[in-house]
Amino acid sequence: MNMKSCLPVKTSIPLVTDRIKITRRISKFWDTISRGMEMAWGPHIHHGYYDGDEILTPVEAQEKLIDRLADMLKIIGGSTIADVGCGIGGSSIYLAGKYGAQVSGITLSPVQAVMARARAKALNTTGVTFMVEDALDMKSFKDGSFDIVWSLESCEQFFDKGRFLSEAGRILKENGQLMLATWCSGKDEYSGKEARAYKRITLAFDLPYMPSMEYYLTLLKERGFTVVSSFDWSDRVKKSWDIGISAVKAYSLLKILAVSGFRGLKFSRQIRLMQRGFRDSMVRYGVFICRKTGT
C-alpha cells in the first residue's frame, strides 16, 4: 500500500504548487476543448438550474441559472460587470443582451476570446468586450471600475483564491457586488479512499484545489467582503452532468477527436467523476452574493 495515498488531504491547500505551470495548462486545456464543449453544451459552458422534475432544455436551464443570479444582484441597464473567467462568452453576451449591462469578459484562453467575440458579433450584441487576462492580475482594469464582479464556475481553477478575491475587491466600486458560483469540496479534509477520490477529481479537471463552502465564507470576510447570502445549489444543478454525459454520448469518438483531440476524448471519459462527486456529496455547488465593505 502506498502510505502517501492514505495521508489526510486538506482541501484548502493546492495539490499543484507551480502557478505558472498550472496557468499554462488551464489555458491550453480550454484552447483545446472549448469548441467541443460548445458542440455538446451549447453557448453556456456551465451548469443549468433545475427545479425538481421541471423539463427544460440545457440552454433554458443554464439561462435560468443566470437569471436567478442576476435577480439577486439586481442587475439593471448600464450596470458595469467584470465577467472573470468568461469562457466562450455565453453569460457576458446574455447579460449585455437581456439586461443592458456593460460587460468586460476575461479568459486565459485566446481561443475562447476569439469564439466569444465572434458570437457577440454574430448576435449583434453591443456593450460587451473580451480579452485574454489572468484573474489573479487584472492589469487592464483600474481600481473601482465595476459595479459587479461575476465569477461563474471559474474560481475553482484559480491557483490563488485569496489573490483573486483581493483583485475583485480592488476593481469593484465602493459597495460593489461580487457573485461567486463555484465548485466546492464537501469537506475541509479527506483521508484514505476519499482523499484519493478528491485528488482524481481535482487533477482530472485541472483544479489546483477545491476548498469547502465554509472555507470560502471565511476567506471572503478576510478579503473585505460582507456575505449577503450563500446557497448550496448542488441539488439544483447536478442534473447537468447527467444531461452532459448523454450529450457527449451522441458523438462518436472520431468526432470528439476531430474537434477536441485526445484531451477532449480524455475529458469525455472523466466527466463521470464529477457526476459521482455530486452524487456522493464530495462536490458541492456554492453560490455567494457579497458586497465590498473594505478590510
3D structure, described in words:
- With 295 residues, the protein is of the alpha/beta class.
- It has one domain (3-292): Vaccinia Virus protein VP39 (Rossmann fold, 3-Layer(aba) Sandwich).
- The chain contains 11 helices and 9 strands.
- It has helices at residues 3-6, 19-41, 58-73, 90-99, 110-122, 161-171, 192-204, 213-222, 234-237, 239-249, 253-279; strands at 9-10, 80-84, 102-107, 128-132, 146-152, 172-185, 189-190, 225-232, 283-292.
- The strands form 2 sheets. Strands 4-3-2-5-6-9-8 form a 7-stranded mixed beta sheet, sandwiched between helices. Strands 1-7 form a two-stranded antiparallel ribbon.
- α5 links the parallel β3 (102-107) and β4 (128-132).
- α10 (239-249) packs antiparallel against α11 (253-279).
- The longest helix has 27 residues, at 253-279.
- The protein is globular.
- The mean pLDDT is 90.
Give a brief description:
The chain is built from eleven helices and nine strands. It is α/β, with parallel strands linked by helices and 295 residues long. The chain has one domain: Rossmann fold (3-Layer(aba) Sandwich).
Keywords:
single chain, 295 residues, alpha/beta, Rossmann fold, seven-stranded mixed sheet, two-stranded antiparallel ribbon, 48% helix
